[in-house]
Amino acid sequence: MQKVKEILTGKIITYLLFGGYNTVFILFILLLGGFIPGLLLEPLIPLDTKAILSLILLVPFISLLLLLIKGFRPNHKKVLKFFFGVEIPIILLAILRLIFVREVTPIWTFFLFSIVVSIIGYTILLFYENKESKLKNTLLSLSQEISVITSGYFALLALFFAPIVLAILAKLIFHLISSLFSTYLFWDILRAGANLLLLAPFVIPGVILFIFTFGFFAVTPFISATLYIKSFKQQLKFLPKSKITGSVFAAVFILTGLLLSLQPNINNHMSAYEKIKTEKNFEKRLVLVSTLMQKAPELKDAFVYNTLAKYKFLGDNKINFIKEGYKKQLNMPSALAKQLQNTFNKLALPFIYQENFKTQHKKATEAYEYIFDNDIQEGERSIITKVLKSINTRDEIKAGLLNKDQKKVRIISKNIEVEQSPTSPYIKVSIEEEYQNLTYSRQEVYYEFSLPQGAVISNLLLGPNLEYQGVISPKGAARRTYENQVRRRVDPALLEQTGPRQYRLKVFPIEPNIFDNPMWKWDDNRRIEPNQKVKYEYIVVDSENILPQITEKRNVFEDKKTKITYKTNGKAVKEIKLENKSISNTLFTKIADKFVYFSPEKVNIKDLAGKNIAFLLDSSYSSKNINWNKYFEKNFKRQYLNEDNNIDVYFFNDLLSQKHKIDENLSNLNFGRTDRINAIKNLPHKYDAIFMFTDSGAYDIENKTPIATEADTPIFLIHVDNIIPQFNDKLTSLIIKSGGKVFKNASIAISYYEKIQSLPQRDLIVDANEYGIWYISDTPLDFKQIKNLDNDKFFKIEASSKVIRKLIQNLDLSKLENLEKIHAVSKQYSIVSPYSSFIALVNSRQEKELKEAEKQNNKFEAGFDLGKEAIDAPSGEGLLNVPAVPEPEEWIMIFIALAVLILLYYKKQIPIKS
Fold this sequence. Notes:
Elements: H1 2-8, H2 11-32, H3 35-41, H4 47-66, H5 76-99, H6 106-127, H7 134-180, H8 184-192, H9 195-198, H10 200-236, H11 242-260, H12 267-278, H13 282-292, H14 296-307, H15 309-312, H16 321-330, H17 334-347, H18 357-372, H19 376-379, H20 381-388, E1 409-420, E2 426-437, E3 443-450, E4 456-462, E5 468-474, H21 475-488, E6 492-497, E7 502-510, E8 533-541, E9 549-554, E10 556-557, E11 563-568, E12 571-573, E13 586-591, E14 594-599, E15 612-618, H22 628-635, H23 638-644, E16 646-652, E17 660-661, H24 676-681, E18 689-694, E19 715-719, H25 729-738, E20 741-743, H26 746-757, E21 765-769, E22 772-777, E23 786-788, H27 793-810, H28 816-829, E24 836-841, H29 844-853, H30 888-906
Parallel strand pairs: 1-10, 1-11, 13-23, 15-16, 15-18, 18-19, 19-20
Antiparallel strand pairs: 1-2, 2-8, 3-7, 3-9, 4-5, 4-8, 5-24, 6-7, 6-24, 11-12, 13-14, 14-22, 16-17, 21-22
């Protein structure tokens, strides 16, 4: 045994290991060429990840340079100590942190700090002699005590893995050697593809490096622990009162580690949450929730912690690597293998999540959504995005909640043009944008915006030269076709209506400027993609505020470099200024067999009186900053309203409170999730009008319960924070069908209702604005001074939107044939509606796919898309939870497949997201 030890620690083996490993490592790095600089320059990869990657790359170079130091090279024992005590631990821990530990928990920070202190102390003792400095010797002694405790703990954990790893490694080497004398490897190469031939210089050093690194995972913890123990023993004599000091320090160190290993658990809060969720009485739930909401910050922290648990730990309570490894690689009986797994789980407490990833993630996200009225990805976006910004995390192609307000795509230019109709008060607004992608990967641009009352989207153009014309398609068919093209990474654009006056625009792809990518500079086939452009147009009545209000944008931004130009009727101007149009004649046109009139009638508005009105006040968590007492004091004269009308006030979230009066104290605790439809549905009796005062919270769930709301009970939504979010389709249809609208100002909403109530023939009125009133009839109406505007394209488009509004109010929307009637008007006049969207496609295959989607019975069903992203764990369900430990030949094929993917990426034959 002594002879074997002398051979293994002799000069020849030492220099072969040290020099050979570092040489192969450096060769491997050099062969990767521009791939490494590309990763280090990628702006989306965080600095700490780049620092770890740089450390892995620099260590072999520094190690070889140490051979030039006098006193290091001739001393092969010092070389061996440095190799297993410093270099390999640094590389292995950096790889572990880079690939598997995406979020550093307090216990990870504690261990990493301890290891850094240990390695620094060990390195100082390795290169410098002890000096007569009590403080220095004390610190070095304590650092080596830390190294003994830490390395001993890791060696204990590694003891479970070592037999499995060595068995796999032995079989792997055997398969590689046997493959050289058979056709096995040859056919593997052919199956991997012709590109593998180009990878030969990469594969050979890569396989060698992989085998040695994989082997070091098995043996380094034990060798390092041995070296640290010896170093500690040598240094112990310099520690004053070594036994007492060492024992106290060890106890404090271990106790600190145990305390930092404690994990927050949402189960402590789940019982209270379940009681709240199951309680169907608003007032009783208010009592239950009052205690829970006092712990709101603690609740949020716990929910986020459990949601991101799979990024913080190497596995959960379902890990099975030890059990499967011993069963498959060493033929151990199942019962004994399971016992070893259970023992490991207890010892590895700091790195193993004590719950189940999937179960706790579901509980945490559902509870967060319910209590805090938001999706956790949006509510805690900054925290989650920070965790996901890692070299081993790839964002979804689509712009999701996590991309909100991110600055990846700059608007180079924005052109806003206004064209006035000479015969009506309606104008066309055109907005054209050109984009520059600041990243190395394709991006999607996403907007949510609201338009002025009555605005109608009438055109969509896409392409570097705006050469692709948008077409009107059923909303569900257009959405599904767009998403399929995004997955295939082919150009589409989608513009859809997400509320009575809300819209959503998606543009893909915004190509990266690959000329600036250092990974692709060597590629002679590279090309600079032209910048993507998009243009959309809408018709709106002449008013002071004609431009969209952007309520949410993802990936896209504008700055001082953005060139903004304005045009009015074809002439360049510094700002948009419009002349007010006066109308003396009733304007007329015919749309889909309907007689449409726009009459400039003067309305003598009467104050509301004798009406039964419901005021619904948002009490969800997202509206917590709204003080209803102050709001009504500022916007209403309570006593006046109360004298002339019966106003019942209700609080709502996903439940409805008991009835209150307008002159009561309207203070209330904000909690729970917004469900506007459920609040309307649960009103105890019929009202003349429903005014819903709410905020910009967009987390209305899709409510599938039928609602019997009379068409003559208008529903008005007032967003008191002046931001109108997207609605689900059912809420949109419900508001339009009721004859209601969406406002940002309560007084304007009241005035609009007063105007409508003051008019005769209300069954023929479909809309009204500051210029006049829209009437729609199946037969001609008797107006004086009628002016036919069949040739006014702006008026025709606006009139067609009013016909759609009237059809929605009158038809049974559960019947497909009625939705077809609405869509037919949208298609004939090329306008967006709640059931029809614009989609711009670029080739015949996309057009064919859209036609197939339009044949489906669900072509109008688009669903409620918040933009929630599917994010995966860094290693599936955890590094230590696998269906089965791969066989050695499977490891070979995994490495070959990885090599092919790297080559394809390196040559940009496929685009890969950063």
